[in-house]
Protein backbone atom coordinates (compact mmCIF):
# COMPACT_ATOMS: atom_id res chain seq x y z
CA UNK A 1 0.00 0.00 0.00
CA UNK A 2 1.37 3.44 -0.90
CA UNK A 3 2.38 5.54 2.07
CA UNK A 4 0.67 8.88 2.34
CA UNK A 5 2.79 11.90 3.19
CA UNK A 6 1.24 13.62 6.23
CA UNK A 7 2.90 16.98 5.50
CA UNK A 8 2.65 19.41 2.60
CA UNK A 9 6.43 19.90 2.61
CA UNK A 10 9.47 18.27 4.22
CA UNK A 11 12.88 19.39 5.45
CA UNK A 12 15.72 16.92 5.89
CA UNK A 13 17.86 17.47 9.01
CA UNK A 14 21.47 16.40 8.42
CA UNK A 15 23.61 16.09 5.33
CA UNK A 16 25.78 13.02 5.94
CA UNK A 17 25.58 9.31 5.18
CA UNK A 18 22.23 8.59 6.82
CA UNK A 19 20.71 11.60 5.06
CA UNK A 20 21.86 10.18 1.70
CA UNK A 21 20.31 6.82 2.52
CA UNK A 22 17.07 8.57 3.45
CA UNK A 23 17.10 10.59 0.26
CA UNK A 24 16.86 7.32 -1.68
CA UNK A 25 13.98 6.18 0.53
CA UNK A 26 12.20 9.49 -0.06
CA UNK A 27 12.70 9.02 -3.79
CA UNK A 28 11.31 5.48 -3.66
CA UNK A 29 8.26 6.81 -1.84
CA UNK A 30 7.79 9.57 -4.43
CA UNK A 31 8.21 12.25 -1.74
CA UNK A 32 11.36 13.98 -3.06
CA UNK A 33 9.44 16.74 -4.80
CA UNK A 34 8.02 17.75 -1.39
CA UNK A 35 11.49 18.21 0.14
CA UNK A 36 12.35 21.91 0.42
CA UNK A 37 15.98 21.16 1.27
CA UNK A 38 18.50 20.21 3.91
CA UNK A 39 19.47 21.83 7.21
CA UNK A 40 23.00 20.98 8.32
CA UNK A 41 25.71 23.02 10.07
CA UNK A 42 27.93 22.85 7.00
CA UNK A 43 27.95 21.04 3.68
CA UNK A 44 30.74 20.82 1.13
CA UNK A 45 29.96 21.18 -2.57
CA UNK A 46 30.49 17.40 -2.90
CA UNK A 47 28.00 16.67 -0.12
CA UNK A 48 25.45 18.98 -1.68
CA UNK A 49 25.94 17.32 -5.07
CA UNK A 50 25.58 13.84 -3.53
CA UNK A 51 22.28 14.76 -1.89
CA UNK A 52 21.00 16.74 -4.87
CA UNK A 53 18.80 18.79 -2.56
CA UNK A 54 19.16 22.51 -1.78
CA UNK A 55 21.19 23.34 1.34
CA UNK A 56 19.12 25.75 3.41
CA UNK A 57 21.77 26.52 6.04
CA UNK A 58 22.41 25.49 9.64
CA UNK A 59 19.84 24.09 12.10
CA UNK A 60 19.10 27.61 13.37
CA UNK A 61 17.34 28.28 10.05
CA UNK A 62 14.51 26.02 11.24
CA UNK A 63 13.16 29.16 12.94
CA UNK A 64 12.33 30.51 9.45
CA UNK A 65 9.77 27.74 8.92
CA UNK A 66 6.44 27.07 10.52
CA UNK A 67 5.54 23.71 12.07
CA UNK A 68 2.15 24.11 10.39
CA UNK A 69 3.69 24.10 6.92
CA UNK A 70 6.61 21.64 7.11
CA UNK A 71 7.36 18.23 8.56
CA UNK A 72 10.86 16.99 9.31
CA UNK A 73 12.92 13.93 8.46
CA UNK A 74 15.81 13.22 10.82
CA UNK A 75 18.79 12.48 8.59
CA UNK A 76 21.34 12.20 11.40
CA UNK A 77 22.47 8.65 12.06
CA UNK A 78 23.90 7.34 15.31
CA UNK A 79 26.65 5.03 16.42
CA UNK A 80 26.59 4.37 20.15
CA UNK A 81 24.01 5.95 22.41
CA UNK A 82 22.82 8.41 19.73
CA UNK A 83 22.50 11.45 22.00
CA UNK A 84 22.78 13.91 19.10
CA UNK A 85 19.95 12.28 17.22
CA UNK A 86 17.75 12.31 20.31
CA UNK A 87 18.55 15.92 21.20
CA UNK A 88 17.77 17.18 17.68
CA UNK A 89 14.47 15.33 17.65
CA UNK A 90 13.44 16.58 21.09
CA UNK A 91 14.35 20.19 20.42
CA UNK A 92 12.37 20.23 17.15
CA UNK A 93 9.36 18.57 18.87
CA UNK A 94 9.49 21.19 21.65
CA UNK A 95 9.21 23.83 18.94
CA UNK A 96 6.07 22.15 17.62
CA UNK A 97 7.52 20.36 14.58
CA UNK A 98 6.31 16.92 13.56
CA UNK A 99 8.45 14.20 11.97
CA UNK A 100 7.49 11.99 9.04
CA UNK A 101 7.29 8.26 9.74
CA UNK A 102 8.68 6.37 6.77
CA UNK A 103 9.01 2.80 5.62
CA UNK A 104 11.16 1.66 2.72
CA UNK A 105 8.95 -0.14 0.18
CA UNK A 106 10.92 -3.39 0.71
CA UNK A 107 10.47 -3.36 4.51
CA UNK A 108 7.97 -5.87 5.87
CA UNK A 109 5.72 -4.59 8.63
CA UNK A 110 3.19 -7.09 9.94
CA UNK A 111 -0.32 -6.41 11.19
CA UNK A 112 -0.85 -4.97 14.67
CA UNK A 113 2.49 -3.16 14.70
CA UNK A 114 2.62 0.32 16.23
CA UNK A 115 5.13 2.82 14.86
CA UNK A 116 5.59 6.13 16.67
CA UNK A 117 6.14 9.52 15.08
CA UNK A 118 9.36 9.82 13.09
CA UNK A 119 10.11 6.10 12.96
CA UNK A 120 12.29 5.10 10.01
CA UNK A 121 12.17 1.52 8.75
CA UNK A 122 14.88 0.94 6.21
CA UNK A 123 15.26 -1.48 3.29
CA UNK A 124 14.47 -5.15 3.97
CA UNK A 125 13.88 -4.62 7.67
CA UNK A 126 11.18 -6.82 9.21
CA UNK A 127 8.88 -5.92 12.11
CA UNK A 128 6.59 -8.69 13.25
CA UNK A 129 3.13 -8.66 14.71
CA UNK A 130 2.46 -7.06 18.08
CA UNK A 131 5.70 -5.07 18.08
CA UNK A 132 5.79 -1.43 19.19
CA UNK A 133 8.47 1.01 18.04
CA UNK A 134 8.49 4.30 19.96
CA UNK A 135 9.05 7.78 18.55
CA UNK A 136 12.18 8.47 16.53
CA UNK A 137 13.01 4.77 16.29
CA UNK A 138 15.41 3.69 13.56
CA UNK A 139 15.10 0.11 12.35
CA UNK A 140 18.03 -0.02 10.00
CA UNK A 141 18.78 -2.01 6.86
CA UNK A 142 17.81 -5.68 7.17
CA UNK A 143 17.20 -5.57 10.93
CA UNK A 144 14.58 -7.90 12.42
CA UNK A 145 12.25 -6.89 15.27
CA UNK A 146 10.32 -10.03 16.16
CA UNK A 147 6.77 -10.36 17.45
CA UNK A 148 5.74 -8.48 20.61
CA UNK A 149 9.01 -6.56 21.06
CA UNK A 150 8.52 -3.23 22.84
CA UNK A 151 10.94 -0.49 21.86
CA UNK A 152 10.81 2.81 23.76
CA UNK A 153 11.54 6.14 22.05
CA UNK A 154 14.88 6.90 20.29
CA UNK A 155 16.00 3.29 19.84
CA UNK A 156 18.36 2.44 16.98
CA UNK A 157 18.42 -1.18 15.85
CA UNK A 158 21.42 -1.13 13.51
CA UNK A 159 21.72 -3.02 10.25
CA UNK A 160 21.24 -6.78 10.42
CA UNK A 161 20.56 -6.93 14.17
CA UNK A 162 17.90 -9.38 15.37
CA UNK A 163 15.63 -8.83 18.37
CA UNK A 164 13.89 -12.13 19.12
CA UNK A 165 10.28 -12.23 20.35
CA UNK A 166 9.15 -10.15 23.32
CA UNK A 167 12.39 -8.20 23.85
CA UNK A 168 11.95 -4.96 25.85
CA UNK A 169 14.24 -2.07 24.92
CA UNK A 170 14.55 1.14 26.94
CA UNK A 171 14.82 4.68 25.55
CA UNK A 172 17.91 5.74 23.62
CA UNK A 173 19.36 2.23 23.29
CA UNK A 174 21.68 1.36 20.39
CA UNK A 175 21.65 -2.27 19.28
CA UNK A 176 24.78 -2.71 17.18
CA UNK A 177 24.98 -4.05 13.66
CA UNK A 178 24.48 -7.80 13.44
CA UNK A 179 23.78 -8.26 17.17
CA UNK A 180 21.36 -10.97 18.28
CA UNK A 181 19.17 -10.56 21.36
CA UNK A 182 17.54 -13.65 22.85
CA UNK A 183 13.76 -13.70 23.38
CA UNK A 184 12.29 -11.94 26.39
CA UNK A 185 15.45 -9.99 27.28
CA UNK A 186 15.23 -6.47 28.76
CA UNK A 187 17.74 -3.80 27.74
CA UNK A 188 17.91 -0.78 30.04
CA UNK A 189 17.72 2.86 28.98
CA UNK A 190 20.73 4.27 27.15
CA UNK A 191 22.59 0.96 26.92
CA UNK A 192 24.75 0.11 23.91
CA UNK A 193 24.92 -3.42 22.50
CA UNK A 194 28.13 -3.87 20.52
CA UNK A 195 28.15 -4.97 16.91
CA UNK A 196 27.87 -8.75 16.60
CA UNK A 197 27.05 -9.30 20.29
CA UNK A 198 24.85 -12.19 21.39
CA UNK A 199 22.75 -10.99 24.31
CA UNK A 200 21.49 -13.78 26.55
CA UNK A 201 20.99 -11.87 29.84
CA UNK A 202 19.22 -8.62 30.69
CA UNK A 203 21.31 -5.50 30.12
CA UNK A 204 21.53 -2.79 32.80
CA UNK A 205 20.80 0.78 31.85
CA UNK A 206 23.65 2.87 30.51
CA UNK A 207 26.19 0.07 30.08
CA UNK A 208 28.01 -1.15 26.97
CA UNK A 209 27.86 -4.90 26.32
CA UNK A 210 29.69 -6.83 23.65
CA UNK A 211 30.87 -10.28 22.64
CA UNK A 212 29.32 -13.73 22.70
CA UNK A 213 27.78 -14.23 25.17
CA UNK A 214 27.60 -10.47 25.68
CA UNK A 215 29.28 -9.09 28.79
CA UNK A 216 29.67 -5.55 30.12
CA UNK A 217 32.60 -3.61 28.80
CA UNK A 218 34.98 -2.68 31.60
CA UNK A 219 35.58 1.08 31.82
C1 LIG B 1 30.91 -1.95 21.46
C2 LIG B 1 31.34 -0.58 21.00
C3 LIG B 1 30.26 0.46 21.37
C4 LIG B 1 32.64 -0.26 21.76
O1 LIG B 1 33.15 0.93 21.28
P1 LIG B 1 34.42 1.59 22.04
O2 LIG B 1 34.04 1.87 23.45
O3 LIG B 1 34.85 2.75 21.20
O4 LIG B 1 35.46 0.42 22.07
P2 LIG B 1 36.90 0.31 21.34
O5 LIG B 1 36.75 0.37 19.86
O6 LIG B 1 37.80 1.28 22.03
O7 LIG B 1 37.34 -1.16 21.73
C5 LIG B 1 37.60 -1.54 23.07
C6 LIG B 1 37.88 -3.02 23.09
O8 LIG B 1 36.67 -3.73 22.83
C7 LIG B 1 36.80 -4.54 21.64
N1 LIG B 1 35.54 -4.40 20.89
C8 LIG B 1 35.03 -3.26 20.38
N2 LIG B 1 33.83 -3.50 19.81
C9 LIG B 1 33.61 -4.82 19.96
C10 LIG B 1 32.53 -5.64 19.57
N3 LIG B 1 31.46 -5.14 18.93
N4 LIG B 1 32.59 -6.95 19.90
C11 LIG B 1 33.68 -7.45 20.57
N5 LIG B 1 34.71 -6.70 20.95
C12 LIG B 1 34.70 -5.40 20.65
C13 LIG B 1 38.01 -3.96 20.89
O9 LIG B 1 38.62 -4.94 20.09
C14 LIG B 1 38.86 -3.50 22.03
O10 LIG B 1 39.52 -4.62 22.58
P3 LIG B 1 41.01 -4.50 23.19
O11 LIG B 1 40.90 -3.54 24.31
O12 LIG B 1 41.30 -5.90 23.62
O13 LIG B 1 41.85 -4.01 22.07
C15 LIG B 1 31.55 -0.49 19.46
O14 LIG B 1 32.74 -1.13 19.06
C16 LIG B 1 30.41 -1.07 18.68
O15 LIG B 1 30.32 -2.28 18.41
N6 LIG B 1 29.49 -0.16 18.25
C17 LIG B 1 28.36 -0.49 17.44
C18 LIG B 1 28.69 -0.21 15.97
C19 LIG B 1 27.48 -0.26 15.10
O16 LIG B 1 26.42 -0.76 15.46
N7 LIG B 1 27.59 0.32 13.92
C20 LIG B 1 26.46 0.44 13.04
C21 LIG B 1 26.07 1.87 12.95
S1 LIG B 1 24.76 2.07 11.81
Task: Describe it.
- This protein is an alpha/beta fold and 219 residues long.
- The protein folds into 2 domains: 10-100, 3-Layer(aba) Sandwich (Rossmann fold); 101-213, Hexapeptide repeat proteins (UDP N-Acetylglucosamine Acyltransferase, domain 1, 3 Solenoid).
- Helices cover 14% and strands 25% of the residues.
- It is built from 3 helices and 23 strands.
- The chain has helices at residues 17-28, 45-51, 83-94, and strands at 10-13, 35-39, 55-57, 71-74, 102-103, 108-109, 114-115, 120-121, 126-127, 132-133, 138-139, 144-145, 150-151, 156-157, 162-163, 168-169, 174-175, 180-181, 186-187, 192-193, 198-199, 208-210, 215-216.
- The strands form 4 sheets. An 8-stranded mixed β-sheet has the order 5-8-11-14-17-20-22-23, with no helix packed on it.
- A hairpin with a 4-residue loop joins strand 22 (208-210) and strand 23.
- The longest helix has 12 residues, at 17-28.
- The N and C termini lie far apart (48 Å).
- The relative contact order is 0.11.
- The model has no long low-confidence stretch (mean pLDDT 95).
- It binds coenzyme A (COA).
Helix content: 10-25%
Largest sheet: 8 strands, mixed
Radius of gyration: 17 Å
CATH superfamily of the largest domain: Hexapeptide repeat proteins
Supply the number of structural domains: 2
| Strand composition percent | 25-35%
CATH architecture of the largest domain: 3 Solenoid
Average pLDDT value?
95
User: What structural class is derived from the secondary structure elements?
Assistant: alpha/beta
Amino acid sequence: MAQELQFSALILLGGGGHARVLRDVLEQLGWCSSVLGVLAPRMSAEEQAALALPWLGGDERLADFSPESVGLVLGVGSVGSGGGRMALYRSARERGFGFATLRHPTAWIASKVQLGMGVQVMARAVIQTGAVVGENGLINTGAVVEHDCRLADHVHVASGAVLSGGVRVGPGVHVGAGAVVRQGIEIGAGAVVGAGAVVVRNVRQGVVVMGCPAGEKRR
